Amino acid sequence: MIELICGDITQAKVDAIVNAANCSLLGGGGVDGAIHRAAGPELLAACQALPEVDGVRCPTGEARLTPAGNLSAQYVIHTVGPIYDQVRHPERLLAKAYESSLELAEQTHCNSIAFPAISCGVYGFPHDEAAFIALNTCLNAEIPNLHIQFYLFKPLDLTIWQHTLNSLL
Ligand code: AR6
Q: Which Gene3D superfamilies does the entry link to (predicted)?
């Protein structure tokens, strides 16, 4: 089941909240900053404890799991979407970011997960294209009984996601 919500993802009542992070997993602006502020310093400490190679804790398209600090969720799944105009196949990497996050949710037996619009902020992904990839990937994931929420921050994004979901169903 996919549910579309206009609002702040830090308020989501789900097992896992997905963070649109950067490869360092050390925080940033946008939704990443909001999640770290709401979760508190325990989240940053959990990220710092993850293995890193040359400062990279999570390559683009992959995902990593941590506890969620002060958030009501049990886990934060940190994933890294592509910077739209800096990679050859941004659509493949965006789909992979969603797939990697869903795999971690399944492995950890989550019943519910909340996604933001990965790469749709400073990473510059066109929102209609991103909505199609996000929703199509989730619809094809076939994880039984996983309740998937999308938190769209801006009303216009909610409209785009709703329109895209209707066209895919
Ligand atoms: N709840 C839900 N969505 C939000 C929230 C929120 N509280 N705040 C912003 N958004 P962005 P990216 C939306 O830039 O493009 C960070 O600095 C926002 O309107 O957060 O993947 C990281 O550290 C947009 O639609 O993520 C990386 O360096 C969407 O979240 C970089 O930004 C994603 O925007 C990642 O860039």
A: Leucine Aminopeptidase, subunit E, domain 1
Nearest Cα residue to atom 14 of ligand 1: 121
**Phi, psi for 30 (deg, rounded to 5):** 50, -140
Contact 119, 81 (CB under 8 A): yes
pTM for this one?
Answer: 0.98
Per-residue pLDDT, 22 = 98
What domains sit in the chain, N to C, each tagged with a CATH number? 2-168 (3.40.220.10)
CA dihedral 138, 140, 144, 146 (to 10 degrees): 0
**Best CA proximity match to 88, nearest among 63, 113, 60, 67:** 60
Contact 66, 47 (CB under 8 A): yes
Q: Quote the CA–CA distance of 154 and 124 in Å, as a whole number.
A: 15
Q: Is 117 in the pocket of ligand 1 (CB under 6 A)?
A: yes
In this structure, the chain runs to a length of 169
Averaged pLDDT in 10-residue chunks for the chain of 169 residues: 97 98 97 98 98 98 98 98 97 98 98 98 98 98 93 98 97
32 given a catalytic annotation: yes
| Of residues 169, 160, 150, the one with CA closest to residue 31 | 150
At 144 the pLDDT is 86
Q: Is 82 in the pocket of ligand 1 (CB under 6 A)?
A: no
121 Cβ closer than 6 Å to some ligand 1 atom: yes
